[in-house]
Specification:
By secondary structure, this protein is of the alpha+beta class. The protein contains twelve helices and 42 strands. Helices cover 17% and strands 35% of the residues. The strands form seven sheets. An eight-stranded parallel beta barrel has the order 2-3-4-5-6-7-8-9. Strands 21, 23, 24, 26, 31, 32, 33 and 35 form an eight-stranded antiparallel β-sheet that branches.
């Protein structure tokens, strides 16, 4: 019987021999490298591939469609949508994803919008219909993924639940109830019966402290429902509690038997001794840098390697699958690729997609890691090696050199039992992603390669890799004028391009014939803790629109209100209305003109429930006008909201909308003089909150001062040349700043322009006598509450000459 490990003397002999080979190979590789030589030479790493090396089974790489992050994808023309899906799921083409996780919709806002549930009332739950299981787009997405890759694993997780779940009382107790276990079971059965989809895994409650008793109850409920094959992933938590459930599993045999996979969110490569002791598969069940550019690609490659190397996690799932939502929403570029222009058909496979391909196109689920050949690189970066299950000895080595100071040498020694074929080499860098390099042949019994810094490599004996290419139309802005009568979609489906942020707006029958758009959710649901879904509204259009008129016919069914909105520049959770203007009209004839949380004007008109009335919001410069049935209800001057999208909204009541129109109108249009200019700040929270985020035109990004700092912190913008201006528009986060000073700068000398107060406001506009300066600065004088706990944070800092 062969020993499982080499005797110490034999291992020493092999390593000495390898070191000799390494030295020659490294010198040869370095000689061919264009990088400048140093006295010490490049750092060198020896990787030895031994057939007897232990290693866990690789379970694949996945991505997550949740928080309405895939909302616009379903509205793409079929031909372009198919190309996008190929990039994501088709094996050997793009990301070649091996796992798809989706949100189990609960009618609540979970990041970038709401995802509908299959039972929004108890009556729908008790008397289900097949059309309830066609709501939204996650069913469609799972079908398309499995059509391209029949072996892909499917997974679901809740962020929240409909309001009827669990009856009355505490939200946690309502969620962790028999009602909700039954709700999940009906979703899984509906997937099987309606869509022929067998879902492989089910999670608990996204990033929320778990309830061990409920996990056991869920397992029993699934078993009774004929769903024994659905495996439970728990507990999908993050931070200090990410792996806490593992210790409870070791002490509770029933919990141990109920949980199939221990999953943690954003583990940063770390697991725990308890997690490893469970003997269960360990996953990074949500991970990601939330960006698809080259730094995001590097972070993905690092996570994929180090989650196994340091934490023995065998699967990593990234949010988001695809950036297919509007830019004003949170985390506007989170996906592996970008597809947020269904009106033009434009899409873009991002570097992050090819970072995933460096693993998925080189190793399939069922391969094994070779632990002895998984190690840090001597010059910075990491290496993991995977071997195929067949006797042909195929293997792949995936390397990332993020943060390396310079070129470094790699020598790979391959033992018996592995293919001796030439190694194919694929590389990604900032300049070019997923390019094939010349093959490597053995030299002196080893493979040698010089690795560039800040790159990703895959070395493999397999040969079915491909960089897929699919043409995309040219990008184009949202078309204006725009109109929709809602006659085209099927009943129960979304209208084109509308993105629900609270409630669910779906196509329905008009009481008098034809089709319309209807808000259907009767009340708040059980929210993802720390988030509060706002009253229902849905967005459409361009964040750059300024002077336009948006109109719609509205029909309030019983009580409550209907609204039309414009210049929406940010969509906020925590039960707040959007940042923008809106005209609200109630069922008993009261109207209000509002700017975000501020009331601008109000009055009464002749409006009743059960009647169609036209609501129009006209925006021209700083003049905001509301019209009902063509007659002016009220008009004000306000400059708080300068540009943004259109919206429709309601309270927690049913209302219908039809004949939606948007038309450009004449009006002054002063450019934002700070947009895209160089910004600086007194301090930064971290690299994710740079000063530049305050001048990028996206209210969903922001500058944040360093923790523990507040008073005398500042944000400055360099306008590039002496510039005349007389107005500022500022959007802050969490209403932290209460008093501030504005200064104008020339040649490093600052002069005060004004001192103001903004307590309780998310955004404000100020005007002052025109000044000419090359710089402008906001200095924080006072913040809400304890200064050390409220560092200032600015989403947008805009400068105008009105």
């Amino acid at each position: 019987m062969k020993p499982k490990t080499r005797p110490p003397f034999l291992r020493h002999f092999v390593l000495v021999a390898a070191a000799l080979l390494l030295a020659g190979a490294a010198r040869a590789a370095a000689a061919d490298s264009p990088a400048p030589a140093t006295n010490a030479g490049p750092a060198v790493t020896l990787v030895t591939l031994d057939a007897r090396s232990p290693g866990r089974v690789f379970e694949g790489v996945g991505a997550l469609s949740a928080g309405a992050s895939s909302r616009l994808l379903v509205n793409y023309p079929d031909a372009y949508r198919s190309r996008i899906l190929d990039y994501l799921f088709k094996p050997g083409f793009g990301a070649s994803l091996q796992h798809l996780k989706v949100e189990l919709g609960g009618d609540v806002n979970s990041t970038d919008g709401t995802e509908p549930s299959h039972a929004r009332t108890r009556a729908e739950f008790e008397e289900p219909r097949s059309e309830y299981f066609a709501r939204g787009y996650e069913w469609w997405l799972m079908r398309e993924a499995r059509r391209r890759n029949p072996d892909i694993k499917l997974d679901v997780l809740q962020w929240g639940a409909p309001g009827w779940i669990g009856g009355a009382g505490d939200e946690r107790a309502r969620f962790y109830s028999q009602d909700n276990a039954n709700f999940i079971a009906t979703f899984l059965r509906g997937a099987r019966r309606t869509h022929s989809l067998d879902i492989d895994y089910c999670g608990i409650w996204n990033e929320t402290p778990h309830d061990a008793a409920w996990i056991k109850l869920l397992r029993r409920t699934l078993d009774r429902s004929g769903l024994r094959d659905v495996q439970i992933v728990a507990a999908d938590e993050t931070g200090d509690g990410a792996w806490k459930i593992a210790g409870e599993m070791l002490a509770d045999p029933e919990l141990m038997n109920s949980v199939n996979v221990v999953g943690a969110h954003y583990p940063r490569g770390k697991s725990t001794a308890d997690a490893l002791s469970t003997g269960k598969a360990l996953w990074a069940s949500e991970d990601g840098p939330w960006r698809g550019d080259w730094p995001g690609a590097q972070a993905i490659a690092r996570s994929l390697n180090r989650n196994y190397l340091e934490g023995r996690m065998t699967k990593t799932i990234f949010w988001s699958l695809v950036t297919s939502y509007y830019d004003i929403l949170p985390l506007p570029n989170s996906g592996l690729m970008s597809a947020k222009e269904p009106w033009s058909g434009h899409f873009d496979p991002l570097p992050a997609l090819w970072a995933v391909a460096h693993t998925t196109q080189f190793a399939r689920p069922g391969w094994r890691y070779a632990d002895d050949a998984c190690l840090p690189l001597a010059g910075g970066g990491s290496c993991v090696t995977l071997r195929g299950p067949r006797k042909d000895g195929d293997f792949s080595v995936i390397l990332e050199t993020g943060g390396a100071a310079g070129p470094q040498a790699l020598t790979l020694l391959v033992g018996e039992g592995f293919s001796k074929r030439r190694l194919h080499v694929w590389r990604s860098s900032k300049a070019r992603q997923f390019e094939r390099l010349p093959d490597l042949a053995k030299v002196g019994g080893a493979y040698a390669l010089t690795l560039d810094p800040d790159a990703i490599y895959s070395l493999t004996t397999t040969s079915d890799q491909r960089k897929g290419e699919a043409s995309s139309p040219t990008a184009a802005p949202f078309p204006i004028p725009y109109a929709d009568d809602f006659e085209e979609p099927k009943i129960g489906q979304y209208a084109r391009f509308f993105s629900d942020q609270g409630g669910v707006f779906e196509v329905a029958e008009r009481p008098d014939g034809g089709q319309c758009l209807r808000q259907t959710i009767p009340g708040p649901g059980i929210d993802w803790p720390g988030h509060r879904t706002p009253e229902p509204y849905t967005l459409i259009g361009s964040a750059q629109w300024r002077n336009y008129e948006v109109g719609v016919d509205a029909y309030i069914e019983d009580s409550g209100y209907a609204s039309v909105g414009g210049r929406v520049s940010a969509s906020l959770q925590n039960a707040l209305p959007p940042v923008g203007y809106r005209l609200e009209v109630t069922a008993d004839g009261k109207w209000r003109l509002c700017s975000h949380t501020n009331l601008l004007a109000q009055g009464r008109v002749k409006v009743n429930a059960g009647e169609w009335h036209n609501l129009t919001l006209r925006l021209s410069g700083s003049r905001v006008t509301g019209l009902v049935d063509g007659q002016e209800a009220g008009s004000v001057f306000d400059s708080a909201c300068r540009r943004g999208m259109a919206a429709l909204g309601t309270g927690w009541n049913s209302a219908r909308f039809d004949n939606f129109t948007i038309h450009p109108i004449e009006g002054p249009d002063s450019p934002n003089l700070a947009l895209g200019k160089t910004a600086s700040a007194s301090s930064l929270w971290d690299a994710h909150y740079p000063a530049s985020a305050a001048v990028d035109g996206h209210a969903s990004t922001r500058w944040n001062a360093q923790a523990g700092k507040a008073v005398d912190e500042w944000l400055a913008v360099d306008l590039g040349a002496p510039t005349r201006f007389n107005s500022l528009h500022i959007v802050q986060f969490a209403r932290r700043i209460t008093r501030y000073r504005i200064e104008a700068g020339n040649d490093g000398k600052w002069e005060e322009v004004l001192t103001g107060r903004c307590a309780g406001r998310d955004e404000w506009a100020v005007t002052f006598p025109e000044v000419q300066a090359s710089q402008v600065r906001l200095v924080v004088l006072e913040v809400e509450g304890e200064p050390a706990q409220n560092p200032p944070s600015i989403s947008e800092f805009e400068v105008y000459r009105e």
